[in-house]
Protein 1
Amino acid sequence: MTETPTITDTPTITPTPTNTATPAINIVLDRNYIDVSKEQKVKISIKEKAGKKVYIKIYSLAGDFIRKLEYTTQQDGWNSIEWDAKNAVGKIVGRGIYFLYIKVDGISEEIKRIYIVK
């Protein structure tokens, strides 16, 4: 018995995963620690085009939500906002490590770490 190959005009589709890089955000902190006894703040600077929505969520090392900061970039280039080491109800947070989850227009995301000292 001989086998005859079957030839069809239907192409075989093979999915090929592609790695789409998340666009990088240019983010600079003027310091990575805050001494609340000296009433220091951290300035968060982001290089973006005007009109971009910036969302910053701050969490403690334990994962507790601390505060949310939002703003819209006013100009092309560097824009900044400050965090005064206060939580959502206006009280100064305790000493420790905090994480800033920074998202621009829901596309790019970056995490920065801040130390609070007293």
Protein 2
Amino acid sequence: VVVTVKNALNQKRLEEENIILRSKFRQKYQKLVGVSSAIKELKKKIAQAASTKASVVIYGESGTGKELVARLIHQQSDRKNKKFIHINLAAIPEHLLHRELFGYVKGAFPEATTDKKGKILLANGGTIFLDEISEIDAPLQLKLLQLLEEGTIEPEGSLESIPVDVRIIATSQINLTTQVAAKKFREDLFFKLNVLPIVIPPLRERKEDIPLLIDYYLDYFSLELGKKKKTMTPAAKEAFMNYSWPGNISELINVIERFVIMVPEEEIKPAHLSLLVEPREFQLIPRSTQALSLKEATRHFEKEYIHRLLMTNGWEINKTAQELQLSPGELKKKIKSLGIRMAD
């Protein structure tokens, strides 16, 4: 029994160490990848923000990399050796959020049997990253205003103000000016926070960066997961370029990780896309064929669509024919006439 318990504890310790190592690995390789004018401008703004102590609001759609930009600002600033604490304001109930940020003292409420430091005090000297700042209520807005104006906080149940030196980097998916106009966000807090606004463009507006992102994250996940290095064919990259990426770079990274884990071959081809990605996600007609005649484009679409269904169904002719409302014989003729092969 003692040996079993010891083995279980060792296993738990190894798992925890692995999580820490993976986290450190990911942070080490965090960088902005791209050559687009949008990325070049974003890098300039990060450098400007890092050189000051002013508050920053990072705007961008979900998945654009707002946390990465916040971390890069912190890492390039004179606070880089201090703590960077991230808190998702939208993920915590309002009645708990105040305590999470500002802490509380013993006796502040029945369950408060000891003092607890809030996230802001824990980040003292460093950076507090407030994700989704537009979600906070009016009382919390007032407390943040006090922090920005006076540099102090008051834990729940305390009559004393505690001085704090912390930089605020916030994010929002919506423009805070609209929240101010709608009386949902304090104007004075907006001006204190929005000193250095940074807007991250969605991935669909910088598609020239996609091939570089593909290569970077194929290398990244091959290293992290201990897999043999993978590459992607130009045709598969073309499919990535055609897709709108509503989940932005987070979605692209997720897809690349799935490829590295699940594709046994060293080269990722268009045929692999149907194995790992929902059929709706990639256009069947590549950009280079948009000028084809209707007949040629129809043939191309038909070939790609039938091939995708065959791949999804494990090349089961009867099942695929039924879905296409064809007889197995008709499907076999189409496979032959369209030149569809398993290796495509």
Protein 3
Amino acid sequence: MSTDTNFAVLGVPTSLVTVLSGLGITTPTPIQTATLPDSIAGRDVLGRGRTGSGKTYAFLLPLLTRLSQSGGRRQARRPRALILAPTRELVTQIDSAMAPLAKALGLTSQTVFGGVGQNPQVQGLRAGVDVIVACPGRLEDLMQQGHVFLDGIEITILDEADHMADLGFLPGVRRIMDKTPGDSQRLLFSATLDGAINVLVKRFLTNPVTHEADSAQSPVATMSHHVLHVDNGSHLPVILDLTAAPGRKVVFTRTKHRAKKLAKQLNASGVPAVELHGNLSQNARTRNMDD
């Protein structure tokens, strides 16, 4: 496809093109250029793209376009579209990216994830929304309680399906998908397209079109890796040397307890640090990510 391809040429409505332009997004990424014509046309799509490839807009744009054109009505407890993602942070990021686009079309959304009280989520679903962006665990809980039904779903997105497989979410994903209409559209995006992902594809996607596109931010092939073998007593001094230099760093630990302890040790030694793990509340995790 020519290098001057734009979102309008790919079938994105003018109202959404205007919003994207206001956000400084005028040129589609390779994954968007490849998938948008098929997904906007209603095809099931299997897309491979790394983080940073632009896959979020690759599924948000067709989802919102098709909802705005389908003529469906918003109903209590029965959303029209479902986006499944593996983590609370990703759910929040997707919903934030969707907000200005959905507003331009008069569409609404609700996030659904654990780690916070469910009442605001239940109230939002009861009021009726067009799109829910959810983690599988909390969504299943609300389904079992009768707070949400998926028989009105027109389009389902599975984002970072490989990550959901790694976290053991696929059984829940299959149970959730089984509750959506068999003739509804499905889009699956993943960094890899093999193994457990193929099980989902064969079971839930109908004659899918496969598109693969790497990000401009793909891992650098010439990156150097260094391994330091140190005894237990030398761990902290070495980590202090590595983290005290200017710039941001990420330190991975084997346990949550170790992450908490190391953050305290770094701060006590004059190296600003925050902990990030599953035992923290959603508000604490968000606050630490923003620090």
Protein 4
Amino acid sequence: MLQDAEGDPVGAAGDSFVVHMDREALNDYPQLGKYDVTVEIRDFEQDRLISWTILGQLRPQIGHVYGCRLEPGKDPAATVVTSFYDWSNIEQSWRDAGIFPVISEGALRATLGILDRTVRRGYPRG
């Protein structure tokens, strides 16, 4: 579970920042405890698309990608957000481990609810 992050706001593919994680809170792999990962931006189109991969301590790197596509909603003040998760190019050893998807569809859907609440509250950028 994401606990905190540090780094500059992203604005281009190749940008990155550090995320502090705590698996004990999720109780899925509590033996991992607290650890840091680097989020590396793969694709970035302002107000249209963002995708990223997770660079962690595991070797080989897993190679999965998360992302969001943004489209104008019917209401001019609305945005339709489509979340995606692509593990089609993961390392074969991770594919053989049979652990994908790591995050369930329900958990991904929950992140969209968190995003919605964050935007509605009007948290300032940066």
